[in-house]
């Protein structure tokens, strides 16, 4: 599965083609921006982690990783599949009201699947986390002045998210600069801001409460010790 690219049956594209004064095309467009073409068997599945549950201890415990991946992420996948089944039935029946009503569930569960898939892949063990000279470091220095300045900006904005959400580094393809952005709940970065996702930090409490209780700043600052900067660089190169 390609990082951050999810799949949706052709029913959503059919929904996007519906014409109704009570259904703005933007509704289907937003959903279609998050997900595209159907997976084998028509169902989304929980991706395997690229490491063991204990691989990024002590920054994040195996207990947290197990619950976060096998319970929370799996719930988004399950609910996404249920939502897509309902969407398929609604499109077949020409039920425009139901199609519109499913937008929130599609965005939330589809976004949760996208965001977490990206998140797992941009983490690694502490001894593998290093920014070396290359396209990523150069782009960070051009955009922020230094790696430390980038970390300070991303950390501050991630910590400041009200309630649940995500902090992101994203590429602005118009300017070529890397930017910091935040998204509420499970809103996916690209569909929300147009930025190409490079690095995500989950600041939902389920991502850190077992290990850090309510001290979000400690968690966010610690996460930088287990970022897979190689993966972040690969995303940057692919996005340009």
UniProtKB/TrEMBL annotation:
Sequence ranges assigned to domain Manganese/iron superoxide dismutase C-terminal in this UniProt record: 133-235
Highest taxon above the source species: Eukaryota
Any GO CC annotation of this UniProt entry: mitochondrion
PROSITE patterns: SOD_MN
SUPFAM superfamilies in the record: Fe,Mn superoxide dismutase (SOD), C-terminal domain (SSF54719), Fe,Mn superoxide dismutase (SOD), N-terminal domain (SSF46609)
Keyword Transmembrane applies: no
InterPro entries in UniProt: Fe/Mn_Superoxide_Dismutase (IPR050265), Mn/Fe_SOD (IPR001189), Mn/Fe_SOD_BS (IPR019833), Mn/Fe_SOD_C (IPR019832), Mn/Fe_SOD_N (IPR019831), Mn/Fe_SOD_N_sf (IPR036324), SOD_C_sf (IPR036314)
Residue ranges occupied by any Manganese/iron superoxide dismutase N-terminal domain in the UniProt entry: 43-123
EC number: 1.15.1.1
Cofactor: Fe cation
Function text: Destroys radicals which are normally produced within the cells and which are toxic to biological systems.
Protein name in UniProt: Superoxide dismutase
Organism: Chaetoceros tenuissimus
């Amino acid at each position: 599965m390609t990082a951050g690219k999810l799949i949706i049956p052709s029913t959503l594209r059919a929904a996007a083609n519906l014409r109704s004064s009570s259904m703005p095309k933007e509704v289907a467009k937003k959903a279609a921006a998050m997900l595209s073409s159907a997976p084998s068997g028509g169902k989304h599945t929980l991706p395997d982690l690229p490491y063991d549950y204990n691989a990024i201890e002590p920054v994040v415990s195996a207990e947290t990783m197990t619950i976060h991946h096998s319970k929370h992420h799996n719930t988004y996948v399950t609910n996404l599949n249920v939502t897509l089944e309902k969407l398929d039935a609604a499109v077949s029946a020409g039920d425009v009201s139901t199609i519109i009503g499913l937008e929130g569930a599609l965005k939330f569960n589809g976004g949760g699947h996208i965001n977490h898939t990206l998140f797992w892949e941009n983490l690694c063990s502490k001894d593998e986390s290093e920014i070396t000279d290359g396209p990523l470091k150069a782009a960070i220095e051009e955009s922020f002045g230094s790696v430390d300045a980038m970390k300070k900006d991303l950390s501050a904005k991630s910590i400041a998210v009200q309630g649940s959400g995500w902090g992101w580094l994203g590429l602005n393809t118009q300017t070529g600069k890397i930017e910091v952005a935040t998204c509420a709940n499970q809103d996916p970065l690209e569909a929300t801001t147009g930025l190409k996702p490079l690095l995500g930090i989950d600041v939902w409490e389920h991502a850190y409460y077992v290990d850090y209780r309510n001290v979000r700043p400690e968690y966010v600052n610690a996460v930088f010790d287990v970022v897979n900067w190689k993966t972040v660089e690969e995303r940057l190169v692919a996005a340009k």
